[in-house]
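Is this the right way to post structure tokens for a design question? Let me know if I should format differently. Anyway, here goes:
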């Protein structure tokens, strides 16, 4: 009984000390400023995997910061055009964006190398390059002149080869083709005689309807169905040699 009373007395003392510490620390928690960011993606809201990755990031940041750091996520087209988010973040109009680095190659050609390399390595290999082969260091150096700090987002590769209105049997079949494609793969098909067209995800379906493109690559069956691409072209090819990683 004596030992039990001693234990209760000691435990009460510890709890009292903890309560006192909490009371001392509490004012610092209360007055700590909150951070509010806006993040725009290049993707429409129906792409639940890609847009969902941005929303998941915001959720994790808010939970880990105890609500002190909140990121408001917008799909492409809601507060700005999908491909304008790079420049808007660079200028400080918004604080963050999420998209494929190859979308900005017209501004800086080196950005093409930080998404995937045609006939190259898989997502695991790309991750090793980023963290153990100076890939991330090179990417940071590339984005630094634009006041941006890049970090890896969701992995969505290997991809499908794309949707085509006509059969592709040989390399010669690319000649004269207008294809929605991004990254280094666009340079490959250009060498084959095709014309690459960079179109945001939300506009691919309409681009097919208007005859702006004859073919397109996007991600894979799940996302392609979300965009309705199965209703735009007859032929669907695999693998996606243009973005394996």
């Amino acid at each position: 009984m004596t030992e039990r009373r001693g234990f209760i007395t000691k435990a009460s003392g510890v709890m009292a000390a903890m309560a006192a510490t909490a009371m001392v620390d509490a004012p610092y928690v209360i007055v700590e400023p909150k951070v509010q960011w806006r993040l725009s993606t290049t993707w429409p809201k129906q792409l639940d995997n890609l847009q969902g990755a941005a929303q998941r990031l915001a959720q994790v940041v808010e939970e880990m910061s105890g609500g002190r750091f909140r990121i408001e996520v917008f799909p492409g087209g809601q507060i700005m055009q999908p491909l304008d988010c790079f420049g808007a973040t660079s200028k400080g109009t918004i604080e963050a964006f999420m998209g494929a680095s190859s979308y900005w190659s017209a501004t800086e050609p080196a950005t093409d190398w930080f998404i995937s390399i045609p006939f190259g390595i898989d997502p695991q290999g790309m991750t090793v390059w980023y963290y153990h082969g100076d890939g991330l260091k090179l990417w940071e150096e590339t984005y630094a002149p634009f006041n941006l700090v890049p970090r890896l987002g969701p992995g969505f590769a290997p991809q499908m080869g794309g949707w085509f209105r006509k059969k592709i049997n040989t390399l010669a079949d690319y000649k004269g083709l207008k294809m929605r494609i991004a990254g280094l793969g666009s340079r490959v098909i250009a060498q084959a005689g095709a014309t690459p067209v960079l179109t945001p995800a939300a506009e691919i379906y309409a681009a097919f309807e208007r005859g702006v493109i004859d073919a397109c690559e996007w991600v894979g069956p799940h996302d392609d169905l979300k965009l309705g691409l199965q209703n735009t072209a007859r032929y669907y090819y695999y693998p996606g040699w243009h973005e394996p990683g």
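Format looks fine. Someone answered above. Worth noting: Residues 175 and 193 are 4 Å apart (CA to CA). Residues 7-26 have pLDDT under 50 and may be disordered.
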